[in-house]
Design brief:
The protein is an alpha/beta fold. Helix content is 29%, strand content 24%. The chain has two domains: 136 residues, Rossmann fold; 189 residues, Dihydrodipicolinate Reductase, domain 2 (2-Layer Sandwich), CATH 3.30.360. Helix 1 crosses helix 8 and helix 3 crosses helix 5. The radius of gyration is 20 Å and the shape is globular.
Length: 338
Amino acid sequence: MNSAPKHVAIAGATGAVGEELLNCLEQRDFPISELTLLASARSAGKKLKFRGEELTVKEMTMDSFAGVDIALFSAGGGISKTFGPAAAAEGAVVVDNSSAFRMDDEVPLVVPEVNPADALNHPRNIIANPNCTTIITLMGLNPLHHAFGGVKSIIASSYQAVSGSGVAGMTELDGQMEAIVRGEPMPERSCYPHQIALNVIPHVDAFTENGYTKEEMKMHFEGRKILHAPDLNASVTCVRVPVHRSHAVSVTAVFNDDPDVDRAREAIAAAPGVQVVDGPFMDPPLYPTPLDSSNGDDCLVGRIRRDLVLENALTFWVVGDQVRKGAALNTVQIAELL
């Protein structure tokens, strides 16, 4: 594709990520000749603002993608599997936010700061956006992967905001917090298996036979594909925390070469889309929190230190806005590569 304005479609335009896609397209001045907003029949007719104009959301059908150059999908795996190939068959390049195509050998899985060249080889006209936790982790890990001879393994724990569960997650947290403040009975749960207010839940997505959840295994398999590191192993525990927005991940990474903390800081500081926020001996101590990255484009890395158990290992803490960099922004950046 060239840099001429494109006919862009957003599938799932009324969701949280869909609306963030609109923000990113406008803020980054993406070249658009026509913008088509698509959603379910229930959301059709809703008005959304873009560049000072009100656009009407249309019901998504198999005929919605005629003439579309780039289709940005954020409507769930089932919708992507149904409508993604139809859009691709019409000639659109599909950038999909769901897990539907991530491990397909003919579909590139792309973080633009990590493996941009992969986006240019898309034989099925589909490019997959990785899992949000994988993206945020790799934004901190990739500079170290290149600085220290390649990463061999990682052990990680994620601290994932309730907005990762969509509006339902935020509504459940808010309702429970209000009940606690008012001394009222706890409302009935519908999103999480346990109370999330004033609590943490070590359970994100469904459990698999090996005892890990699907969310935890995504980092294992997606990390291998994105980093072109087929022998990479990742042992991950994903935890839901009572935070509205932005995920955080504690990572211990083992490298082929002996790592150095100062070189690690330099490598991360020189990488695009990521910042070092690491001053443990300052007053007050400096390290990133979810609030620091919320509504921001960059991922933030701190608490960088040598691991005291494993050889050739560093431990660090990375936070990022999972709605923006973990989803919408990464999607728009892939479209920019096209």
